[in-house]
Amino acid sequence: MSEAVTRSTHSASTSPGLLASLDPLLREWLPRQRWFAGKGRPVTGFSLVSVTEVLPLNSRLGLLHLLVRAHQPLVPTQSAPAHPADCYQLLLGVRETLPPHLAPALIGHPTQGPLAGLTVYEALHDPRPADVLLEALRERAHIGELRFERDMAQEIRGDLVPRLVTAEQSNSSLVYGDTFILKLLRRIVPGINPDLELPLALAREGCARVPAPAGWVLADLADDPGDPYVLGVLQPFLQGASDGWDLALRELAKGEDFSGAARALGRATAEVHTALARALPEVTMGRAQMELLVEGMTERLTAAVQTVPSLLPYAPGLRSAFDALADLASEGQTWTAQRIHGDLHLGQCLRSPSGSWSLIDFEGEPSKPLAERRLPQPTARDVAGMLRSFDYAAHSLRAGATAPSAVPGWADACRAAYCSGYAEAGGRDPRTDPVLLRAYETDKAIYEVVYEARHRPDWLPVPMAAVRRLALPEPS
Ligand SMILES: Nc1ncnc2c1ncn2[C@@H]1O[C@H](COP(=O)(O)OP(=O)(O)OP(=O)(O)O)[C@@H](O)[C@H]1O
Ligand SMILES: [Mg+2]
Question: Which of 35, 98, 136, 299 is deepest in the core (most CB within 10 A)?
Answer without folding.
Answer: 136
